[in-house]
Amino acid sequence: MKVQFFVGRLIVLAAISIGMFQCTPVNRKIVQKPIIWDSTRIQLSLQYLHERHGLEADSPFITPRMVVVHWTAIPTFEGSYQAFYPSILPGRPLLQSASALNVGIHFLVDQDGTIYQLLPEKYFARHVIGLNYCALGIENVGDNAGHPLTKAQLKANIRLIRYLIKKYPDIEYVIGHHEYRTFAGTPLYRETNPDYFTEKIDPGDPFMEAIYRHLPVNRVKRRYQGTP
Ligand SMILES: [Zn+2]
Fold it and tell me: What's the whole-model pTM score?
């Protein structure tokens, strides 16, 4: 009896241990921290889809075909979060002239690698000219000066992107924000004003190359492939 009880306990302990050491799915590690999604944001998103992307949509949702990686150029998580929080864009005259919709993002990764989800994946977010209507966005707290992106952020981006490309088979591209203009002139790029551009350097080639080293070979691309 005693032996059976001991063996039984061993089996239970082993099962618990295996469960503990199995990789936790990334979606269980994502902290939900929503920004405002109100009637103003919805209305401005529909207006953006119409005026900037030239798309008539009756709902502000996207079918993700790419992931765009950024840094916030704001040194703290709270400061970065607050920048995305309101529906209406404060300041930034060049962006304001294109739309009053505030910048938004689906995921925000803190310097310690914690992933926060600010918007559901299929909601429209303004974070990359010409491609918002099909782009999921990941922002990273940091910059190219005193707060460089960390190894923990790199690992979190890799885990998150691997999870997203598995979940959405339509995602064909993973790019850095600094690469978005390579899509101008392709069918994927939709911006009604051909002169509306911003110069971007985030997050830079080394970060994107480090991500790509850990993505499944031939699953996604950094440059448009197809007939322009
Ligand atoms: Zn950016």
Answer: 0.88
